[in-house]
Amino acid sequence: MTPNSETAKTYPPSAELASKAHVDAAKYDAMYAASVADPAAFWGQQAERLDWIKAPTEIKNTDFTLGQVSIEWFRDGTLNVAANCIDRHLETRGQQTAIIWEPDDPSEPAQSISYADLHRRTCRMANVLESMGVRKGDRVIIYLPMIPEAAYAMLACARIGAVHSIVFAGFSPDALAARVNGCDAKVVITADEAPRGGRKTPLKSNADKALLHCKDSVKCLVVKRTGGQTTWTEGRDFDYNEMALEADDYCRPVEMKAEDPLFILYTSGSTGQPKGVVHTTGGYLVYAALTHEVTFDYHDGDVYWCSADVGWVTGHSYIVYGPLANGATTLMFEGVPTWPDASRFWQVCEKHKVTQFYTAPTAIRALMGQGNDFVTKCDLSSLRLLGTVGEPINPEVWNWYNDVVGGGRCPIVDTWWQTETGGHMMTPLPGAHATKPGAAMKPFFGVQPVVLDPQSGEEIHDSPTEGVLAIKDSWPGQMRTVWGDHERFEKTYFSDYKGYYFSGDGCRRDADGDYWITGRVDDVINVSGHRMGTAEVESALVAHEKVAEAAVVGYPHEIKGQGIYCYVTLMSGIEPDEELRKELRTWVRTEIGPIASPDLIQWAPGLPKTRSGKIMRRILRKIAENDYGALGDTSTLADPSVVDDLIENRMNRG
Ligand code: WTA
């Protein structure tokens, strides 16, 4: 049964928390009403939280009309993101810790990087990049472990006006090459090796392989992390550690227009290859900073930790840009939750006296399975707030997080948002809203969610209701375009439901008007919080010489949320066996990366297709879910008998 307001227990904020919070219930109501009544007035005022070189006077110029979609915020304002995240704090917070870095191996010392250190190191990195020929508007790929240099690199790009694009260190050389070429990057910043969970990924040698498929002019800047041996290509490879020693401690921040791109982040959609989501300078930073402060109720002296990787949008907005714009202390963790053992997260919380902790449901599920002792043996009394992001959280998992990790005293913010939205879109606010296990609850300021009937596209005003989730008007953190393909941007987000931004998610609104995200309604799957298009896995599979055709769907997986279920039709004459299954698994890992590794591969002599040749994924999804009693209408299939065969031989029996 899906939970609703009648069955779900609610957890109101304590009076003490509400009285100290930035936003209590009355303030939320007033601010939310103001933000939708007059967005320009509201956001014009919020923009004052940043230091502008030229303050904006034109606040909102946005249009969701298909064919002329255009999104601009603060367009006549100018500023520099790095100056906002570092320089303006120097006078009051120079000696305050900006970044706490906790390495993969707990026996290696942690680092404390003050705002003054951050300034020096970012400036040096910026000067190194300039000396390599990087100029305003150029693209730089960052392919680094979770080390402080990743933050320096992001901020250094922002300082000189270069556009960064981070590629998650778990991605393969092929995926890296596609992104270098996709945005025509001038430089790739990488490290010798990335330690994670006691193992090392050879990043530099991955980059070497990727660069074989890129223009000869692309340069590679190499940060030393482990000292592991790397091969060196004279003239192409540059030694960061050596160059940083020589580089000047100061680099002037470049004046950027609010709508100049800040970064590109590749993300998966339901069709084709990943697209380059473009975020710009002014609106993004206003939105990341405000949401960070309000959602996490960040106050001076707090130690805030988001356990995401900077390779994902969560790391961009809530490890680096939001917290640093607010002058916060942000923790950066190189490791994984389960190594050396399942106590690692909680030991880090204890060691650094973390006050706000933000992670993904998949991590919580994995840790919950290890038992409570790993948590309860640590002193977690510093924790004041918990957060989750990335996928729907099951109520049992929410309860465990609340009771065992939070000791029943920490509000949980279940934040719904996307790479495309730049920051939180729906979340309870800790001092304002009662929470319900599994609900994203309320829209953030300026966000106008609507539930649409999936068929008619009409807005449904009554509650309770269920439908697809769209947003009615723009907010400053919204993506502006797909890099190099504005038409794809319009088609992906504005063509299914005219006049709205379509999220790709389904949702319910309960009788109280609170929102529950039910998951993707398109061909995007969410595996351990990592988002991927089934089309990407399919094209990797069919690139194998023995595969004729493949269809990929998600199925419920206890730890990962969704697992990857592949139906594979082999070339004629090829006999399926276990060896080939293994080979295909390894193949997909090398084509995309370990996160895309198929969980189940079913040999499919035929796939269910309509007479026009379209694969009916609805049916494949049902079979993968073991829900073959509810296949629905199969009469439009060209050959209905293939379905019987697939059911007969389905993989996850039980
Ligand atoms: C899902 C991650 C339920 C959703 C910030 C969305 C969630 C996709 C939640 C975006 C949540 C994210 N509850 N589902 N709190 N947060 N999602 O771009 O399906 O990696 O569309 O951004 O994750 O994933 P992305």
Please provide the count of β strands: 30
Relative helix content: 25-40%
Hetero groups in this structure are:
5'-O-[(S)-ethoxy(hydroxy)phosphoryl]adenosine
Radius of gyration: 24 Å
Report the end-to-end length measured between terminal Cα atoms. 20 Å
Mean pLDDT: 94
Instruction: Quote the beta fraction.
Output: 15-25%
Protein structure class = alpha/beta
The global form is globular
Q: How would a crystallographer describe the biggest sheet? A: 7 strands, mixed
Number of helices: 21
- Poorly predicted segments: 1-6
With strands numbered from the N-terminus, the spatial order across the biggest sheet is 5-4-17-16-18-19-20
**Oligomer type:** single chain
What can you tell me about this protein's structure?
With 654 residues, this protein is α/β, with parallel strands linked by helices. Helices cover 30% and strands 22% of the residues. It contains 21 helices and 30 strands. It has a seven-stranded mixed β-sheet with strand order 5-4-17-16-18-19-20, with helices on both faces. Strands 7-6-8-11-12 form a five-stranded parallel β-sheet, with helices on both faces. The N terminus is likely disordered. It binds 5'-O-[(S)-ethoxy(hydroxy)phosphoryl]adenosine. The site of 5'-O-[(S)-ethoxy(hydroxy)phosphoryl]adenosine has 23 residues, from helix 12, strand 20, strand 24 and strand 25.
Task: Write a brief structural summary.
The chain is of the alpha/beta class. The protein is built from 21 helices and 30 strands. It starts with 14 loop residues before the first helix and ends in a 6-residue tail after the last helix.
